[in-house]
Design a protein that fits this description.
With 257 residues, this protein is of the alpha+beta class. The chain has helices at residues 4-17, 70-78, 112-124, 168-178, 226-235, 244-247; strands at 29-37, 40-47, 54-61, 89-92, 95-99, 134-141, 144-149, 158-163, 185-186, 196-199. It folds into two domains: 4-124, no CATH class; 142-247, no CATH class. 24% of the residues lie in helices and 23% in strands. Strands 4-5-3-2-1-6-7-8-10-9 form a ten-stranded mixed sheet. The longest helix is centred in the N-terminal third of the chain and has 14 residues, at 4-17. The model is unreliable at 207-257 (pLDDT under 50).
Length: 257
């Protein structure tokens, strides 16, 4: 994903659809993921019961519609009206991919709760990030999620398999550094939505280590005053303190081992 506008659109759709992880996007339909595809976003939706249902990937071109209308488009399609032909159907990761044509679909109106959430999200949004890190996600099962991330200084998308049990907060904070560790990397042979996989399912935090050393061996300074943290963020082009060791290596952001 090299087009900055497509990357920002992908990140915007990802943020917009997070709400539907806890609420049905349509009757008997639940969101399973938001995936990056060439020139498009793919929304994974599971229809039916967990065991007897099926997961479909709905592909929507980036330049065809604003992110705000995507939930309404999906509700219209999931209501049962077939607005696509046999030429629009393919397969990825063992699941059916359906290419949608937004110009032919009338979005279902947003429910009152969804409108309220949209307004609150707009008020709480920290603003557009020129280089958004998270560009997609996919629930692999109830305790494992694949995060699709893209570093600002390198091309290519990485799929990071992240457990939802154990210490997920510490793992997410360390993610920008861990994805660069070769010990976690493996080919993404079965996933066309990323160029590389990072298997973090066995990663363990080390809370007792005063230096903040993580499983991969990188150290990040943990003790600092609030003013120091603010100065570091302003000086660091990567914006994340935990990311600095792998990208800018400034003394203001991390210790050298």
């Amino acid at each position: 994903m090299t087009d900055p506008e497509h990357r920002q659109q992908q990140a915007a759709v990802t943020r917009l659809l997070l709400y539907y992880l806890n609420a049905p996007i349509a009757e008997n339909c639940r969101l399973r993921g938001v995936l990056p595809a060439p020139g498009a976003v793919r929304v994974a939706v599971h229809a039916g019961d967990d065991e007897e249902g099926a997961t479909f990937h709905y592909e929507i071109p980036h330049d065809a519609v604003a992110p705000y209308y995507i939930p309404g488009l999906l509700r219209t399609v999931l209501a049962g009206t077939q607005l696509y032909g046999s030429d629009d159907i393919s397969e990825a990761m063992g699941m059916t991919v359906i290419h949608l044509h937004p110009e032919k679909i009338t979005p279902d109106p947003e429910p009152d709760q969804g409108q309220a959430l949209t307004a609150l999200r707009a008020l709480s949004d920290p603003g557009e990030d020129e280089h958004p890190f998270l560009v997609g996600f996919l629930m692999l099962d109830n305790s494992l999620m694949r995060l699709y991330v893209q570093r600002p200084d390198q091309p290519g998308i990485i799929g990071a398999d992240t457990p939802l049990t154990g210490a997920p907060t510490a793992l997410i904070a360390s993610l920008p550094t861990l994805i660069d560790e070769e010990q976690y990397q493996r080919p993404a042979a079965d996933d066309p939505h990323c160029d590389l996989l990072a298997d973090l399912t066995n990663w363990q935090d080390r809370p007792g280590d005063a230096s903040g050393r993580m499983a991969g061996g990188h150290a990040v300074r943990q003790s600092a005053t609030r003013g120091d943290r603010g100065r570091r963020r302003r000086q660091c082009p990567a914006r994340w303190v935990v990311r600095c060791r792998s990208c800018c290596r400034r003394r203001c952001c991390s210790r050298r081992s």
